[in-house]
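Bench log, entry 3. Co-assembly request; chain sequences pasted below exactly as received.
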Amino acid sequence: MEIKQTALAGTLESSDIQIMLSKGTDGVSIELESDVEKQFGDQIRLVITETLHQFELDNVKVKAIDKGALDCVIKARTIAAAQRALQTQDQPAWEVF
Amino acid sequence: MKNNVDRELPEDLMSSLNYQPYETTEIGNPEIQRVAPVVRAQTGDDKLVDSIEDVVKATVKDGMTISFHHHFRNGDFVFNKVMRVIIDAGIKDLTLAPSSLTGVMNDMVVEAIKAGTVTNITSSGMRGSLGDFVSHGNLKNPVIFRSHGNRARAIEHGDIKIDVAFLGVPNADKLGNANGMEGKAVFGSLGYALMDAQYANKVVLLTDNLMPYPNTPASIKQTQVDYVVEVDQVGDPEKIGSGATRFTKDPKELKIAETVNNVITHSPYFKDGFSFQTGSGGAALAVTRYLRQSMLDNQIKASFALGGITKPTTDMLKEGLIDRVMDVQDFDKGAADSMHTDPRQQEIDASWYADPDNKGAMVDQLDVVILSALEIDTKFNVNVMTGSDGVIRGAIGGHQDAATAKLTIISAPLVRGRIATVVPDVTTVVTPGDSIDVLVTEYGIAINPKRTDLIDALGHIAGVPVFTIEELQKLAASKVGNAKPLEFTDRTVAMIEYRDGTIIDAVKEVKD
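Structure output for the full assembly:
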């Protein structure tokens, strides 16, 4: 699937993550900023990538600013950003949850 | 080489610095020969010096050990003024031995290291850009971290031999009689600086408030002081303390504080004449509030409160709920003012407070202490020095010292953001699990299995679930996931002394 518009979900509050998706050309590329990069960077990237794959988004640029979010939060923010980017937010993708 | 908390210690440094590995929290009864400073006799008529430049020129030479106190905390102007002059004078190879380093000093210390002015540091702690700088291997020699009580011990032993102490004070007369209570930038107790005043070969006072002679009450005495320098401002009163004390509204902190209070009041130590120490910070202040109510309800009074003092503690002194406050430093203006007006609030030096090699320190008489933790592991070992990324960002303070109390409570949230506080192994052991008795989190408590006597007293408090510490560690991991282990190089950037001067752990350079 192709991204229709650049989209954002999440805040910069503690324990949240802000995810911005925009059109990409070369697979899923993630620019991650996180205080827990050393310990959880790989895990955060994995959750974002897996969630995007469920939307069949294969070419997408991700900018993620993490403030110590748990996996469930990262997944929720990625889903919200993806649906906004695909302009399908009126039809929740239940199968992804 | 491993010590008794199972930490691998760097053999080369252990031998070149002549260190023994940590063995036990028991100090025993060693006999100690203390050192004494070199005194240059004078009548005292010529102590006033016009400028910092002149006094630095007269006192500081390459390779010396210089010291400062950190009672001005982030409002300190003295450290940067003096270090500026020392760096500009081209002096090299100094050992910096302050009671601690606060954020406002960071940039200057980094500059001094880069210039070769400072090549060794011993401190209670460091944070921010300086901690980052050191953790990335930018200081050639390892930093030696010591608790406040251990610094006093090291000075008395001669492990730290201070050549020149630069001590900022809010008032002094021309011979050097000074205290921390009057003037513009007041901080109350001079507790940590009193060691330097007593043991440094040269003592330089810096003040912005020259008083008529003789100035009393004199915490630092003219018999100890070599030079007095008048400067325009010693500190920013707004940044010395936390100002008006605010109580936390964070429900997690309140829950922890309430549980800490439950643990105290159900312990055998909660009886008339008990003693306690709390720190600063939201949860500790909230504990004081709950404890006050419990003391009123049960008509129990404390014989003394100890350590770093805050206004809620001095309010209890005024109320008659505490009989004496033994004050090594004041965290806010309310506490500092109270020391000035209330003779029951006694200024104590770091040795009296917490020195293990003493004829009796206050911490040895302490019943209950509440301490914090960046991490605590399943052996109850506590880390207050390195952050979750392995970088130095903390201070021992009085942690190891006060943990000798009869009931040592660690209050900490189970997780902070995505970082678990309760872990299988702490990154850096600062305080050994042997001196920790109870961990309080927002989910419940864990009692050190060595304290079988406490399990009966604390095992059945309504609303306070009891876990093993392994259960709490697993609960934390189930929330945040498994963290990838931190990576370090082989290079040692800091050695952590236990309060008896043995080595409890080493901090390695972080790999980025």
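Residues 7-90 of chain A form a domain with the Ribosomal Protein S5; domain 2 fold (CATH 3.30.230.10). Chain A touches chain B at residues 14-15, 35-36, 38-43, 67-71 (CB under 8 Å).
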